[in-house]
Structure formats: structure tokens, C-alpha cells
Amino acid sequence: MAIDEIFGETRPVLAPTKSALYVWGYNHSGQTGRKCEEQNLRIPKQLPPDLFGCPAGDNARWLDVACGREHTAAVASDGSLFTWGANEFGQLGDGTETSRKHPKKVKYLQNEFVISVSCGAHCTAAIAEPREKNGTIASRRLWVWGQNQGSNYPRLFWGAFSPDTAIRQVSCGAVHVVALSEDGLLQAWGYNEYGQLGRGVTCEGLQKARVINAYAKFLDEAPELVKITQVSCGEYHSAAISEDGEVYTWGLGSMGQLGHYSLQSDDKELIPRRVVALNGIIVKDVASGGVHTCAVTTKGALYAWGGGQAGQLGVGPQSGFFSLAVNNSETMFRNMPVLVLPFGVKQVACGHSHTLVTTQDGRIHGWGYNSYGQAANQKCTYAWYPSPIDWCVGEVRKLAAGGGHSAVLTDACSLKELCEFRLADSVTPWNASMIEDVAYRTGSDALVRLCERLRESHPDGGICNC
User: Does the keyword Repeat apply (predicted)?
Assistant: First the structure.
């Protein structure tokens, strides 16, 4: 049957939702999940469901994905957690310190239904509930493992919270972790040499968990307790959103990543402090990178601040930066929020030195350090401005960015999109023109862009078929 007969005048047919997981970028430790020798995988390609042994087969859904410095974790629809990549600190949760290039289920959590996961530089944390509890919020518990977490297996962790405290979210930094309870409290543990635990002091050595109970809303008033709805850990700093949509930041701020105007080589904030420059702006999403921070407002605007030496702020190389000579090299900063995109942004994810966003039109854009292809389609070391990433097909559900790799979780909700998935997996430099023609005639815009980018990036037909 001709393709015109299939798509011609027929109406879209709804089909069961299917998820697709794409991972790309730096692949030194196998963090992209592809069994090949390529160090840099610049083209996102769907990881096949059978790679994970999912019981639902091709219709398997994914709930969450997270990227660490060189490892990756994903949560399947049946509550199973899969990990792969670097494992020198036990961050894969299999009890070993052996890196792995293929996804493997974390068997220690087989009696738990995992809801979400976060990856730090060398550790992992997951929120899960006992399967017999049947999905009640009150039963959501925190599990941690890897560097500084006391175990190479998942370990149930209460910290400063009582055992009956429900956990809403967890975020891992380079050497610290912050967990958010359902009632809006934060607890933090790990290293605190830059004040990233929000305790009002700096400390040497590994610190036990403690609740953060002081937030500086106004400089001329005493700190008070604030109810938090979201938290994000950067390398040595943290950011959180209050129930009023205000952003608080703390920890290391020497590159302007706290957004508090000051800019000194030893600048740090020891307790959460409100980002005054965003006064009157309601924020719904925040993400912290290595030395930069991004926030999405309820109106879809994106703001960014901090280090911009690799282009991770998305405002170009010469756009109101402060510069500072560090070790005979010039580094560029923005010590207060700058508007990057005025509208249309839905989600943001910050890697060590790159940024990803999804927009209302369903597209993914990236910018920043791009030596491994983790931020943009084009072959460049630095992507200074938002650049479309057109390899992924389907509606974006979750973005994740790590040290040098990225991941996207998408859904396909119609027969047309399911067909796009199949065609996207089969596109090569040799058939891109033919598939592009079919995609154009059937209104498959994402597939058209994919084919165009493939032809532009590989004029000689060379591509990694991993």
C-alpha cells in the first residue's frame, strides 16, 4: 500500500501512549546506554525498550530520567529503576564499583515502586514507596547510594526527618544532597565548605542531615521559615522555589550563580536568600548547573544568571557580562538574572555547562558547552544562543542534563506520532531525502527537521549506527 493511501485523507487515530528515551553526548563511561566505542554521540537516538527488558514491550512508558556527571538513571512505568554508566563510587546501586555501558535494573529496590530519581556527580537518590502501600503519598520514602551516602546499595534514609515524613523531591549536587518534604521543609547533608547546606556557617568534612529553618526574604529583617515547593542543587550551590513563586539561592556564588548582585572570588551565601532581582515575578521551575542557574516563570519566560564562559546562559558572548581574570584566562559572569527567552518555555534543565529547555510548540532547544554534542545540533564547541534539537520525536515529558551528556523523555500519543517514531529510528544519510519528502507531505514537522539536520550534519553520509 502506498504511503499516500495510509496518510492521505484519514483522520488521526488515537493509540496507547508510548514513551521514548533519548540519551546523547559524552559517552566515556557508557552513560548514553549504547554499546559502541564512540566517545561522543552527537545524535540523540531512542534506546529500545527491549534493552531494558520492559514487560510492556514497545508500549512501555517511562516516568523519570536523570543524568549525573557520567551516569544515567531512568524510572520505568512499573516502578523499576535502571542505571548505567560510571560506577567508581557505587552510584549505580548494584553493590559494585564497576562501570556499565548497558542499563540494568536496581534489584535492591525491587520491592519498592520508584517514583522519581536524581543523579549527583557520583551519587544517586530515589523516591519510592513500598509496593504493598498501593500509592499513598504518605508512604513516599527516600533512598540514597554512592559517594558520601554510606553504601553502594540503595539505603533507606530519614536524616533529620521523622520516619513518617513523606518525601516530595530530592536533588543531588556535586557533594551535597537536599530533600524536600511534602509539607515544604528542606533537609540537607554532605559537604558544606561553601555554605551549600544552608546552615549559616561553613563546615569542614561530611555533615549529617539538618533541616533548613532560616530564609532571608529581606536583608533588613530577621530570617524566617519559608514553605518550599521545589529544589535544585548545582555543583556547590542550591536554589529553591517558595510557595509564593519566589526563588531562594545559597552556597557558592563566586561566578554570580546566586543572582545576588555581588561578585567576589570567595562570595558565598550561608543561608537561603531571596533573589531580589526577580521581585514580582512568579517562578514555576528552577534548575542549577555547575556555575549557573535558570528559572522559568508562570508566563513561560526564561531567566538565567551565573557563569557564562561556555555559553550556558544563552545570551551570546558579549551581552552585559562582567569579566574576571582567573588563572590567566578571562571568565564571564552575569551576577543578576537576565531574560533569555520572553515566552513559551515549559521546562528547563541545567548540566554542568549547558542548558536545555522545552517550549510550548513542542521543540527542544539547547545551548552552552557543546564539545560532545550535548547542547546543540551544530558542530561547535560553544553554542552561545538557543539552538533547536530536532532529533527527538514526540511530546517532551522530561529533560535531564549531566556533566557532558543529555537525556529527553518523550511521549507519542497518536498513530501519526507512533509512525514518526518508527521512521525516525530508520533515518540514515542515504534515505533522509526520501523520508523528508514523505514527512513534508504528511505534515510531520519534527521528522522533516530531523531529516534536514541529518543531511546538513552528515553531507558525506557518515553516521554512528550504534
Answer: yes
Does 429 fall in a domain?
no
User: CA-CA distance, 173 to 191, in Å (whole number)?
Assistant: 10
Residue 460: inside a domain:
no
Number of H helices, E strands in the chain: 4, 29
Identify the burial level of 339 via C-beta atoms within 10 angstroms of its C-beta, where 0-12 means exposed, 13-18 middle and 19 or more buried.
Answer: exposed
Residue written as cell 517550549?
359
- Whether 456 maps to a domain, the answer reads no
Reference 250, options 280, 281, 228; nearest CA is: 228
Alpha carbons 252 and 255: distance in angstroms, whole number: 8
Q: Which of 425, 427, 401, 403 is nearest to 412 (CA)?
A: 425
Please, are residues 33 and 24 in contact by the beta-carbon 8 Å criterion? no
3-state secondary structure at position 433: helix
Query: Along the 466 residues of the chain, how does pLDDT read in single tens digits?
Result: 333 332 333 333 333 357 889 999 999 999 999 877 777 888 888 888 778 876 544 446 889 999 999 999 999 989 999 999 999 999 999 999 999 999 999 999 999 999 999 999 999 999 999 987 655 566 899 999 999 999 999 999 999 999 999 999 999 999 999 999 999 999 999 999 999 999 999 999 999 999 999 999 998 899 999 999 999 999 999 999 999 999 999 999 999 999 998 655 568 999 999 999 999 999 999 999 999 999 999 999 999 999 999 999 999 886 656 655 455 455 678 999 999 999 999 999 999 999 999 999 888 999 999 999 999 777 789 999 998 887 777 789 999 999 999 999 998 656 666 677 677 778 888 888 888 888 887 778 878 888 887 887 777 655 444 4
- Centre a 10 Å sphere on the Cβ of residue 37 and count the other Cβ atoms it contains: 9
Number of domains in the chain: 1
- Whether 149 is covered by a domain: the verdict is yes
Q: How far apart are CA 303 and CA 314, in angstroms?
A: 10
Q: Considering Cα of 92, then 95, then 101, then 104, what sign does the dihedral take?
A: negative
CB 396 within 8 A of CB 347: yes
